[in-house]
Amino acid sequence: MRILITNDDGINAPGLEALYDIATEVAGPGGEVWTVAPAFEQSGVAHCISFVHPTMIAELGPRRFAAEGSPADCVLAALGHVMADALPDLVLSGVNRGNNSGENAMYSGTIGGAMEAALQGIPAIALSQYMGIGTAQLADPFEGSRKHGPEVIRKLLAHDVWGHGDDFRLFYNVNFPPCDAASVLGVQVAPQGRRQDVRFEVEAYDAPNGRRFLWVLGGPQTGPATPDSDVDANMKGYVSITPMRPDLTCHDSMTKLRGAFQQG
């Protein structure tokens, strides 16, 4: 198996090192793991692409490349250039330092990388490690994802439901709970949830030269969330798996909306 890995924390992130180990185990002795990751941190860039300027790419070692762009750029660079002669069988994005459950999924560059792979017709999984009190004192905060990641990926591959034909292909959002590997209680398939009263905000800062800057701040990650959602599962000690697709249509509103515009 040929696996492409990327992330949004950057080419030197410890989570990417963890993902390399996970991917190597999944690929097996005869497999290959290729890395095309951002040269610099790209957290929060979602599914953006560098549409109006070129992306510089550098080979850092065998099957290891850094691109000055977003995770989606990195996937495009891999499929269109680095691995163009033999495309990957699977794209893994992560392991993100911090969860991409709930509303975080909408901002995530980790998910953006997996989404781009799905748009290109390649099976893809985004993986993120929830951080918290349970991981703060660990020698390896990615212990849970290292331990349980390979089995989760293998089961998703065996399940083999990715979407085909002209439809938007599925990809999977996997979040590991904020605890050590031994404390993980299992796996739950759960929908994307939302933390109550949690939104991104900005905080102003006045520099000594008089210029004003704005810092983007995230909200608390441990508050109450939608019951039986990905956030809820993670906070209870479970790995969450959420099937997603690059389709933002609210299908359950279509009939009612059509009726409103067909009246009179």
Describe this structure in words.
The protein is an alpha/beta fold and 264 residues long. It has helices at 14-27, 71-82, 109-119, 133-136, 143-159, 230-235, 254-262; strands at 2-6, 32-38, 57-61, 64-67, 90-97, 124-129, 171-176, 186-189, 201-206, 212-217, 238-244. The protein has one domain (2-194, 224-262): Stationary-phase Survival Protein Sure Homolog, Chain: A. Strands 3-4-2-1-5-6-7-11-8 form a 9-stranded mixed β-sheet, sandwiched between helices. The protein has a two-stranded antiparallel sheet with strand order 9-10. Helix 1 crosses helix 5 and helix 2 (71-82) runs parallel beside helix 3 (109-119). The radius of gyration is 19 Å and the shape is globular. The mean pLDDT is 95.
C-alpha geometry? globular
SSE-based structural type: alpha/beta
Rounded Rg = 19 Å
Strand elements, count = 11
- Supply the CATH class: Alpha Beta
The major β-sheet equals: 9 strands, mixed
In total, the number of domains comes to: 1
Number of helices: 7
Q: Identify the CATH architecture.
A: 3-Layer(aba) Sandwich
Strand order of the largest sheet: 3-4-2-1-5-6-7-11-8
> Whole-Å distance between the termini?
58 Å
As a percent range, the share of helical residues equals: 25-40%
CATH fold description: Stationary-phase Survival Protein Sure Homolog, Chain: A
